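Work Package 4 report. The design task specified in the project plan requires that, given a folded chain encoded as structure tokens, an amino acid be chosen for each position. We show below one input record used in the internal validation round.
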């Protein structure tokens, strides 16, 4: 899958468009790029293994509870996942966010 572009799937206009809900989505190997491509999305339990996440705020304010980011390549520093919620999330390096102080920053997300 390729999700690209500014506000590609987003809650850019709260109250006008619903919050993107991709619970359990298989985005393994996907390329997600662009400024706030998946802004405020619910990715609970999503499979993002080996995905490429790039761009400023590509996954800004997303819920990554129980999501799997193992092997994901994250570029754009912490801004790529700015404000993300991590809970029992598998980080890109294979560690669990709960064992990393509730974050994946420094564990494949720089």
């Amino acid at each position: 899958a390729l999700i690209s572009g500014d506000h590609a799937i987003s809650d850019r206009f709260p109250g006008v468009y619903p919050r993107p809900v991709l619970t359990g989505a298989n985005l393994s190997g996907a390329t997600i790029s662009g400024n706030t491509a998946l802004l405020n999305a619910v990715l609970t339990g999503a499979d993002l293994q080996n995905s490429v996440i790039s761009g400023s705020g590509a996954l800004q304010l997303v819920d990554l509870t129980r999501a799997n980011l193992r092997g994901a390549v994250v570029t754009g520093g912490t801004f790529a996942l700015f404000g993300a919620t991590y809970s029992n999330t598998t980080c890109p390096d294979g560690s669990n966010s709960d064992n990393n102080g509730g974050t994946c920053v420094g564990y494949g997300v720089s």
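The radius of gyration is 12 Å. Validation will be extended to a larger panel in the next phase.
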